[in-house]
Design goal:
alpha/beta; Rossmann fold; 7-stranded parallel β-sheet; 5-stranded parallel β-sheet
């Protein structure tokens, strides 16, 4: 029997995770807040977190001396110190596949909102203005759709793009020619994808070499009037550079489900505090840049919710409980190499 603590658990999570653990002899608890130093449980043998605001450091692990398993309810795991976990003989598992179609569909939700100027159209309609002449959009058919990262989500995005009649070009470190032939896209180097695409969508993982993958130089490579979509990780894009590209008009718009400084949106920060601490200064810069993006009319932002459908959340929680149950029988099907 293990004591399991689920952090950042919604009401839906509580129901689905409890259903998945029914019939076991484990004891589990739910905490709606992130895992922080104030919320650690020294008796916890398993903790399960979401990718949002729980950042598991070695210090937090030390505060839970009985901890044996970290089960993140996400594909990404950059919020967990894997080296610290390995040093403490703590296993880390994730949910590698749960919503590749879900995230790809959300990427197109953002793109269509920009293509048809949906936010402003809805505003003017509610204001009683029914003239469409000032709100012309653009067709997707015939446009070049560039995909950075041709994993499962990128593949679904390619299929959707082909369905819209788009010319799809993709970049990936590991090319699969047979996949390109099956779906009907072509591979190209990253520079060529950026230079040729009318729309660029990011589906790359966040690894150290990909931090600020889209920076000032790469944004300059993009077409004048292109659109950037990011449903992957905020840190893939240099926010300062993105704002400059949008303000100059080089980019026509951006659809963002994740932003580099998004974690600061839920924090209460006293702007007038004397800024003696470098971290605080960086936090305020990130917050200011994030708020600048939110105010831009050519930017559509959603709150890291690309995953959030009934079906996808159900798959996340089912795989998570399966990960936990199997771990106690000596199996770790979704173990992250540490």
């Amino acid at each position: 029997m293990a004591k399991i603590v689920f952090y950042e658990a919604s009401e839906t999570d509580k129901v689905q995770l409890s259903d998945g653990l029914q019939g076991t002899d484990h004891h589990w608890e739910f905490i709606p807040e992130p895992l922080t130093a104030d919320a650690t449980d020294p008796e916890a043998e398993v903790v399960s977190v979401f990718v949002g605001h729980s950042h598991i450091s070695g210090e937090l692990m030390d505060a839970m001396p009985k901890l044996r398993l970290i089960a993140t309810r996400s594909t990404g795991f950059d919020h967990i110190d894997l080296q610290a976990a390995s040093e403490r003989d703590i296993t880390v598992v994730n949910v590698p596949n749960y919503g590749e179609n879900t995230v790809a569909e959300h990427a197109f939700t953002l793109l269509l909102a920009l293509a048809r100027r949906l936010p402003r159209t809805l505003e003017t309609t509610k204001e009683g203005v029914y003239s469409p002449t000032e709100l012309s959009g653009f067709d997707l058919k015939g446009k070049t759709f560039g995909i950075v990262g041709m994993g499962r989500i990128g593949q679904h995005s390619a299929r959707i793009g082909k369905g819209f009649g788009m010319d799809v070009v993709g970049f990936d470190v590991f090319e699969k020619p047979e996949l390109a032939e099956e779906i009907g896209f072509r591979y190209a180097p990253l520079d060529e994808v950026l230079a040729s695409a009318d729309i660029v969508t990011l589906h790359a993982p966040l690894v150290p070499e990909n931090v600020h993958l889209i920076n000032t130089a790469r944004l300059k490579q993009m077409k004048q009037g292109a659109i950037l979509i990011n449903t992957a990780r905020g840190e893939l894009v240099d926010t300062h550079a993105l704002i400059a590209a949008l303000e100059s008009g080089h980019l026509a718009g951006a659809g963002l489900d994740t932003i580099e400084g998004e974690r600061f949106l839920n924090e209460q920060i006293e702007i007038n505090t004397v800024l003696d601490n470098k971290t605080t200064k960086e936090t305020l810069i990130n917050l200011a840049e994030t708020e600048a993006l939110l105010r831009m009319p050519q930017v559509v932002v959603t709150p890291h919710s690309a995953y959030n459908t009934v079906e996808a959340v159900g798959r996340i929680n089912t795989i998570t409980t399966d990960n936990i149950i199997k771990f106690w029988y000596g199996e770790t099907p979704n173990k992250i190499n540490q």
